[in-house]
Amino acid sequence: MKKLACEILDLLGEGLGLKDPRYFSKLTTNADSDCLLRINHYPPSCNIHKLDHDDQCNIKSLVSTKASNGGNLMAGGRIGFGEHSDPQILSLLRANDVEGLQVFVPDHEGKEMWVQVPSDPSAIFVNVGDVLQALTNGRLISIRHRVIATACRPRLSTIYFASPPLHARISALPETITASSPRRYRSFTWAEYKTTMYSLRLSHSRLELFKIDDDDSDNASEGKA
Ligand SMILES: O=C(O)CCC(=O)C(=O)O
Ligand SMILES: [Fe+2]
Questions:
Q1: Which CATH architecture has domain 33-45+78-210?
Q2: What is the value of pTM for the model shown?
Q3: Where do the Fe2OG dioxygenase domain residues begin and end (predicted)?
């Protein structure tokens, strides 16, 4: 998983035209890096299957399209993992053949909706983390996702989180800052970000707290922040 994360990060670094295309992967291979492997188990949630066919269809369409009420929509399924963005650099997820993962994306009309990620035990789901969003000045976006358990079988997932060392300073790379896209976030250490994160609810858009006000962005783009 680590090797794959590095390969993906190096390709992203190359694609973004970084002077050092290995900048991201070096953060994760540093001896002090804070990488993490998480295993999630979601017990079966069969309530939906006790309903008749029409109700099941109604509920399934509700779960996959309705993004309101702060992500607490139960609709026969159980919130297995609340709405959040991953805080690290990159996440690589593998799961069994039980669905449940949903991502929050704009649809073709610009409205946002929850989209079900099809289950595929042979696939790896790659997610950009908040730190990569900050390092790329928002060029890469860390999307919100959640798990709603509606299946009669347990869902199992394993996620490798490629992370920087605690002391690493996270600051947008100069190649990602332009006159039309000035520095968006003040710099922070990964330790500082983790402390902030643990003081907030899982669903909090924590990176917003590090956003530079429009008034400050002129100074920031000149490196004074
Ligand atoms: O188990 C899943 O499918 C997603 C879990 C997740 O988003 C996480 O552990 O950060
Ligand atoms: Fe996640």
A1: Sandwich (2.60)
A2: 0.84
A3: 32-164
